[in-house]
Amino acid sequence: MITPSVTSPTEVMINMIAAFLLIPIVFGFVFRAPKYVVFGFLSVLFIFSDSTWGQLNAASGNIYSRGVGLFYFSLLNIVLIIAGIAVLIRRLANPQGPQLAPQMTKYFLAFVFMMIGHVLIGLMVGIELDVILSLNGMFNVINMFAFMYLAILAFENDRDTTTLLFMIIILAVGRGLFGAVRYFLFDGDTSNPYRNFEGLDIKIFFFDIGDNFVAALAAFCAAWLLTTPGIKLNVFTRIFLVGVIVLEVAAVALSFRRSSLIGMGLMFAFLFLRLPGKRKIFFAGAAALALSLVASTFFEQRLQFNTTQGGGILSSLIYDISPTRGGGIKNSRFYELYAAAQSMEGHWLFGRGTWGTFTGDRERLAFHEGNWGFVHSGFGHLVLKGGIVGLLIFTGMLAAYISFYARFRKHLYGKAALLADAGFAGFLFWIPTLLIGTPIIEFRTMLLFGLTMAMPFIAVGLQNYQVRTYIMRTQQYAAA
């Protein structure tokens, strides 16, 4: 979640100049070389953490909040908005160009229409515009769409897609090595609510769910390359990819986040289902060994603190949602959603507005620190802000995405197949977070989610490019 940063007069002037200079620069890059804009975003998203929750001495801002306070949005968000407008103009100027996920367009337009309605109603009832457009509302869904469309536009040939896959793995390895050094040689991630707030004697690899996703995505890509039939790799590449898997799986396991561990499990279960019969046996054996190591480490380091007398791994995994806990829903993780639902009377259809809040037991919800404008569920947050209508638009988009992948995956091969599978696996990773996390209010998280949404569409574009190139070369050969 982005928090405003305190800026000096000099910083204000610098930010103003930068903002005005960004418009022609970003437009120029989007029209001439959009891939460099996406590469820049990916470098930031993969390298820099956004979460400060869990720090004892949290900084006033980071790269994702630079410019907040002077503008409605951060400078990085402004760049994304400008890029999104440039993508729209480029598409309108060249309607015969590559399609930008038309399956998603109606959901994007529906969400924009809903946001415009919230802006108009909010202004009519006296809500400030910066509150209406706050990332505590639903604006990050717009950011997600903008980045998704930008990524689809940027990659449409074989070389650029190879660079994208290379960046995903290399940046993730760099981030993973940084986390490993910090974990094994120092005190781990300073954003550690388990130790700093709950008093648990553990250190963690990464707390930010975005870092966990980056690690899981790289591990999936490496495992896909190692296990998929028809992929020829030399021994050094295989050793490197095995090292990538070990590093990135350790990063997720030692982060001790249930949602990311379950998400990574879903990714590798999906890979297992895609493998032919003989390879499933080898993969199942390796996965069982890895799972046993991860589960034992997870239980020993974190879940032991949540286990009652005689409990095991399963009981400790669901310690805060177990039906055996006394006190009913008020003593469970779902109390927050229950309290939010109690505040929805008369607002179920269209929500309480992007500025809407809920009320509940302040002692039980002390972790909110007085901010009642979000809940720990992406779907629940959409209902709070946009009602059943907002939830239906978002879930309709997800259904269209799943349908697109299922329809076109059987026609893909090579790098296009890897891109599509990695994107869909990434979508599976985010399911637990959408259910029990706070993705909608997190700028970095929603852009990474936008990347996973874009990847199958990029893959189909790459396949079309390869087919066009093959036909053109065949015609040139025949003419010669």
UniProtKB/TrEMBL annotation:
Localization: Membrane
Q: Name one Pfam family in it.
A: Wzy_C
**Signal peptide coordinates:** none
State which residue ranges cross the membrane: 12-31, 36-56, 68-88, 108-127, 133-152, 164-185, 205-226, 235-254, 260-276, 281-299, 382-406, 418-441, 447-465
Domain O-antigen ligase-related as annotated: residue spans: 245-394
Query: What's one GO MF term for it?
Result: ligase activity
Q: How does it sit in the membrane?
A: Multi-pass membrane protein
Q: Which UniProt keywords apply?
A: Ligase, Membrane, Transmembrane, Transmembrane helix
Entry's InterPro entries?
O-antigen_ligase-rel_domated (IPR007016)
Name the domain of life: Bacteria
Q: What is this protein called?
A: O-antigen ligase family protein
Q: Which organism is it from?
A: Noviherbaspirillum album
